[in-house]
Amino acid sequence: MPNISRDEVAHLAKLARLAVTDDELDVFAGQLDQILDSVAKVSEVAAQDVPPTSHAVPLTNVFRDDVVQPCLTQQQALACAPAAEEGRFRVPRILGEEQ
């Protein structure tokens, strides 16, 4: 049975750069202890014949071949734009950026 101490919680909090009070150390120690107990129980149940998985259902990437198709020319794409400049869409400046 895992048993995490207040000193270990304080050390973890320091590594994570968290300010933790003495009362919180006791609370977190108990909570972390419960978490470690739960993980230990799950580890006991896991059988050797069950392969480790990252997802509950199998995932398969579906790829398609890239096919070149006709598309708009630059002039056609910019024809309905509210504003264009030097062959590009012109958009309002954001966040006060300098040019």
TrEMBL record:
MF terms (GO), sorted A to Z: asparaginyl-tRNA synthase (glutamine-hydrolyzing) activity; ATP binding; glutaminyl-tRNA synthase (glutamine-hydrolyzing) activity; transferase activity
Do you know which InterPro entries this protein is assigned to? Asp/Glu-ADT_sf_sub_c, GatC
Kindly name one Pfam family recorded for this protein.
GatC
The EC code for this enzyme is 6.3.5.-
**What keywords is this UniProt entry annotated with?**
ATP-binding, Ligase, Nucleotide-binding, Protein biosynthesis, Transferase
Presence of keyword Nucleotide-binding: yes
Among the GO biological process terms of this entry, one is: regulation of translational fidelity
Q: Which reaction does it catalyse?
A: L-glutamyl-tRNA(Gln) + L-glutamine + ATP + H2O = L-glutaminyl-tRNA(Gln) + L-glutamate + ADP + phosphate + H(+); L-aspartyl-tRNA(Asn) + L-glutamine + ATP + H2O = L-asparaginyl-tRNA(Asn) + L-glutamate + ADP + phosphate + 2 H(+)
Top-level enzyme category: ligase
Q: Which PANTHER family match?
A: GLUTAMYL-TRNA(GLN) AMIDOTRANSFERASE SUBUNIT C, MITOCHONDRIAL
The record's note on quaternary structure and interaction partners says: Heterotrimer of A, B and C subunits.
UniProt similarity note: Belongs to the GatC family.
Fetch the HAMAP family from UniProt.
GatC
Report the protein's function.
Allows the formation of correctly charged Asn-tRNA(Asn) or Gln-tRNA(Gln) through the transamidation of misacylated Asp-tRNA(Asn) or Glu-tRNA(Gln) in organisms which lack either or both of asparaginyl-tRNA or glutaminyl-tRNA synthetases. The reaction takes place in the presence of glutamine and ATP through an activated phospho-Asp-tRNA(Asn) or phospho-Glu-tRNA(Gln).
Q: What name does the UniProt record give this protein?
A: Aspartyl/glutamyl-tRNA(Asn/Gln) amidotransferase subunit C
Q: Which gene encodes it?
A: gatC
